[in-house]
Specification:
Keywords: Membrane, Transmembrane, Transmembrane helix. The protein is an all-alpha fold. The chain has one domain: Rhopdopsin 7-helix transmembrane proteins (Up-down Bundle). Strands 1-2 form a two-stranded antiparallel ribbon.
Length: about 300
């Protein structure tokens, strides 16, 4: 089927987003792999998320070729079923990508933060994300019984209320986004840092906050689009929100890891890092403890030794 102008613009936006995501992940691997030599599970999870984003972009092109962005009156029943079948798999892949990106962020926190309480909180979020991801994936796979009803008769009662399902699933996603945003703040806010590092942390926090606000807006606007009588025209907006929701976390999750690369390219940035003798950090240990995750508890102010390089 010939692409509509709306569908072509949608695919172009998707291609641009995934290109930026690919660049961000490539730079992340250079920074952590070639410079710091600390590549770990967090990096491979974000790479897996990127693979899903690339597959999702290819799927958007296939979806457009099957009528997405075209008025439903111009789409045959065969094209509609083919598009819905493709949509079924894309929804599963998209949600899996979102879960993988959150797992990557939690693993990065475990790499960076050494204090016991924040590691326990991070493990709690990680377990919750995995359980939610498992339940979400199974729900999306068995959304209709039999599964083929999704593309033959998606309005069948056995498929449930798809709008309610969307709201519940994505509201939980919003909660996880805010949890990951707020988790490190009690450790980061007391830090006495040079203004460049403060600016860097402020930018990162603002980007994370933007993702949280974006996820809230997506729930609001997509809910309205799902009620549109002509899904095939309104569906482009729904898919666009999904594309951005999948790619933005990839990009933003990579930004904190690029500082070593930036300092290597622009050595002046390295001057923002306090020297080891910097007295603006309280280094007096309060207590030391044993155990696989509790390395050391510190006085009021977090220290650079509370962090590992990212």
């Amino acid at each position: 089927m010939e692409w509509s102008a709306l569908g072509a613009r949608l695919f172009a936006c998707s291609a641009v987003m995934v290109a930026v995501s690919t660049l961000a992940v490539a730079l992340r691997f250079i920074s952590r792999g070639r410079i710091l030599h600390v590549l770990g599970p967090t990096d491979w999870f974000i790479a897996a998320t990127l693979v899903i984003a690339i597959v999702n972009t290819a799927g958007v092109g296939a979806h457009v070729s099957r009528g997405l962005g075209t008025p439903s009156s111009e789409i045959s029943n065969e094209e509609r079923q083919a598009a819905l079948k493709l949509q079924y798999f894309l929804i599963i892949a998209n949600n899996l990508g979102l879960i993988l990106s959150k797992i990557s962020v939690t693993l990065l926190f475990l790499d960076v933060f050494l204090l016991t309480w924040i590691r326990k909180a991070t493990y709690g979020i990680l377990i919750a994300v995995i359980l939610h991801g498992t339940a979400l994936t199974l729900t999306n796979i068995f959304v209709c019984i039999p599964i083929s009803l999704y593309w033959t008769d998606p309005r069948d009662p056995t498929c449930g209320d798809y709008i309610l399902r969307f709201i519940i699933q994505n509201s939980i996603n919003v909660v996880f986004n805010f949890a990951l945003l707020l988790l490190p703040l009690p450790l980061i806010l007391p830090l006495r840092l040079p203004w460049r590092q403060k600016l860097w942390l402020l930018v990162l926090f603002c980007l994370g906050f933007a993702v949280c606000i974006f996820s809230v807006l997506r729930v609001v606007f997509v809910r309205a689009d799902l009620r549109d009588d002509d899904y095939w025209a309104a569906g482009t907006r729904i898919v666009l929100w999904s594309i951005m929701e999948l790619n933005l976390p990839i990009i933003i999750a990579c930004i904190p890891t690029l500082r070593p690369l930036a300092a290597k390219v622009w050595p002046a940035l390295a001057a923002a890092t306090p020297p080891a003798s910097d007295t603006s950090f309280d280094r007096t240990p309060r207590a030391s403890s044993a155990g696989p995750v509790r390395l050391r508890a510190f006085d009021r102010y977090p220290k650079r030794s509370d962090f590992r390089p990212v």
